[in-house]
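Narrative summary of target 7.
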Amino acid sequence: MGLLQEFMKINKIWPSKSLKLPYSSLSKLEMFELGYFATSEVPHRCFSIKLNPGNDHLKDVALLYNSASKQFVSLLNHEEGLVITLFESSKENLDAHLSTIEEKIKRYIAQLIEKPDDIRDQIIKCILVERKLDEAMHLSLSNEVSRRVYFAIGECRERAALIPIFQNSKGADLVQLALHKWMDTALNLPQDTTFPSEKTKGLVKNFLQIKKWLIELISNQLAGISTLKEENTIE
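Modeled conformation, tokenized:
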């Protein structure tokens, strides 16, 4: 059973609790991306996402799953604000886990509002790159054809290349090399056959490392902590 089918089966059975956050001075897209960032920790896997084209991001939706905690998360841009819903098999820790998410996203909102427009835009685009990392991992884990995995990695790499705070951060060169390597790997496979399971393990392991690095980069940028590469200086 796929994750989407599993979610459709449990979403009315498992205990759940929702949090609604008004858009205030942030756009629907900014709220959606911050919500994604607040809920998608390293082990989370985005298994379904639908974004509306253009500037109206009403009813954008994403579904995430954490295999370690057996936890589903739903993100929905509602008319009145972003709605985050947490589903867990037991309600024992549901309130505490949702409170943690609420604290994180409220902190991120306050931090993002204070940023200059250019930095604000770059941070949001970095979260988009995180989503593309998740997409590439999900496609490889879902037995998709190599062509789809290749294009997901390619979009991730190309978008990252256009974000100065990404490119100028410590570790970015290694990240881009890894993305390039996996693009080559996917390209050299038969494009219309399933991405090989023996390659999936290595890709996911590497991409989880990249995701951890990117989450730290975004968190530091939101907090105003420099992520710049160390410059070589001549004394």
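The helical segments are 3-10, 28-39, 94-113, 117-141, 146-161, 164-167, 172-187, 197-223.
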